[in-house]
Structures are given as structure tokens and as C-alpha cells.
Amino acid sequence: MTQIVTLSFFRFAGPLARAWALTMMGGARWPLSRTPDIGFWKLCGSGTGEGFTPVPNTAVYAILATWPDIDTAKARTTSGVFATYMRRAAEHWTVFLEPQTARGQWSGKEPFHPGPATTLGPLAALTRATIKPRILARFWGRVPNISAMIGKDTNVMFKIGIGEVPMLHQVTFSIWPSEAAMAGFARTGPHAEAIRAVRDEGWFSEELYARFAVHSDAGRWNGISPLARSEAA
Description:
CATH class: Alpha Beta
Number of strands: 8
Distance between the termini: 30 Å
Shape: globular
CATH architecture: 2-Layer Sandwich
Oligomer: single chain
CATH topology: Alpha-Beta Plaits
Largest sheet: 8 strands, antiparallel, barrel
Strand content: 25-35%
Mean pLDDT: 83
Number of helices: 8
Helix content: 25-40%
């Protein structure tokens, strides 16, 4: 059986809906923890602009979760607390992922269980880090260059920065049409320089790097499926 990881994104319009979404960063913990078949899960806010910024985007929130298989993942992400989010959101999108590689920990756990991918097509990359407080200024000083670079990359199909705690706990997530496109971004320019600094200077107290095959998606983001580019290629 192949583990499925889901990332569900929700966009909220208007101050009342956004205020509700903010309160659910605490209020959704109880129902999520009691969702049948759910494994590891996290509630996240997002950043503004290209997403890789320390300034919160009060309109967009995300739920990451792991499931035992694709049928369970599809059923659970359209019911319970997920359905409550969908009813309140102006727009929502879920991407279903098969872990290919994973290294590191998240909150002291190894949440992703890589296996043989059954899907050919786009790839997704996720990085998660707890930033050491003394490194915050240097870390966020590099982010604008990385954000500008990924924003200009015509290969990237989707990108966003999310996190559990602003400034300190950061997750970057992106989808690419191929391994070559993903590697080309990671190994050059500001991103590569930041990776070298992370290793040389020990910026993070905890880190995780994972790659996934994109199995499928449901819903829309900015009016379309972000995977439509791949299907049209």
C-alpha cells in the first residue's frame, strides 16, 4: 500500500471568513486529531507575495495530512473538518502526493514513508525547517532573492510558503513538470547559495526535505487546476 500525503489549500474572502480561518488554527486541532485514518497532520498559515515571505497572508490556510491509501485520502479530505473548511472557503484545492524520498524530521517525527511511485508526471518538493532564532535576520535576508528567482522560473507549476509559526517554522512547497526542472532551480543561484549556508553555518534546529510524485488533485486554485499546465503540455 502506498502512503498518500495531502496538502489542502483554502482561500477565504472577506474579514469574517478570514477571522474564522484564523480561529481554526486552534479550533481545528481537536476534530483533525479525531479524523478516522489520519496519520501525521499539520495546520498552516501562508506567506504573502510568492509565498516565501515572513508577512502572513490572512486569506490562505493549508492542512497537510497523511493517509494509508488514495481512496481513504480522497474520502477523508471531502468530509468532516475538511468539508467545514470547504463550505467557508471562497476557493479550495487539494493535491494528492506519493512520497519518493524523505530526509529529516518534523516535530520530532518522520511523517513520510517513501515507496515505489505508481504515478508518472509532475514532481513536488517540500522543505520544512525550524529556524534558530539567532539566524532569523540572515535567513529572511536571503528569502527575497530566492522568492524572486522561483517567481521568474517559467517551469514551476505551483509554489507557496506555509508554516505553523510565523518566522520560526517554515515550509516551502512547489510542483515541477520534471526532475530536471526541479534540479535546475535547486542547484543554481540564490537557492543553492542558501543551501550551502544552511550546511556550513547550521541555520536550522530541525529540518526535513521530501520529494513526491503528484498523483492527482481536486478543486481549483486561481480558477484552475495548477496541474493543467502539465496535462496541456
